Amino acid sequence: MKTLTKRNYFLLIGAILFFTGCSNLNKSRSNHEWVKLFNGQNLDGWIVKIHHHDVGVNFGNTFRAEDGMIKVRYDQYGDFNDQFAHLYYKTPFSHYHLKLEYRFTGELQKGAPSYTLLNSGVMFHSQDPRTMPKEQNWPISVEMQLLAGLGDGKPRPTGNMCSPGTDIVYQGKQYDGHCLNSTSKTYDKGEWVKAELIVLGDSLITHIINGDTVLQYSKPTMGGGVVSGYDSTLWQPGKPLKSGYIALQSEGQPIDFRNIELKNLER
């Protein structure tokens, strides 16, 4: 995938605005400014949902605002006990450009599954966390998966796609796997990485890592597997996912997030 230069960025945004029916590009640029989703001081405007707990219960102070970052930590846990967690921004979005920086730190929490080593993510087009029962493990959503290298010299791309309770179309066909690797480089634990998402409702989705476009796909719908414990009355396989909540993931590996900003691309 090519590097997203400043020129290419504006070309992409222009295509996005044209695609969504916007006829005045200059006006749209001036009306759609970057907004900070995290104020750098506290978790105001964010909602916690952790597996085995009711919505709003931040068990073990899993998510905390410190040093201008959102930190994911497990120092108040015992065994991990499948307490997969997500921190949701309060407002759903449909067409937008999201950017943030992340770095992995610390050690995998005792009892966390081995596949969660140096593994986290950003969920989007997610269901409202307030619709999740106490025993639902992951939200029905699409995930931009974040990974770091394992120090073994083998490539481990980041900015991948995973699909808990969803399906996507890749290269013109419905993708039949759960996760889809991007073309990104491998980044190490402790290294700050810039991740971006450009989301156009239920059409084109673009993943960008450190300025490189690393993955594109389209047509997210409800479907697939992986998610358990959900409210069956919400389950509508094939339903297009045109909007939803954005969430930061906790799967057992400490991670830091900072500079979380969003530009709304709605007309």
TrEMBL record:
<dbReference type="GO" id="GO:0016787">
    <property type="term" value="F:hydrolase activity"/>
</dbReference>
<dbReference type="InterPro" id="IPR010496">
    <property type="entry name" value="AL/BT2_dom"/>
</dbReference>
<protein>
    <submittedName>
        <fullName>DUF1080 domain-containing protein</fullName>
    </submittedName>
</protein>
<dbReference type="Pfam" id="PF06439">
    <property type="entry name" value="3keto-disac_hyd"/>
</dbReference>
<feature type="domain" description="3-keto-alpha-glucoside-1,2-lyase/3-keto-2-hydroxy-glucal hydratase">
    <location>
        <begin position="33"/>
        <end position="263"/>
    </location>
</feature>
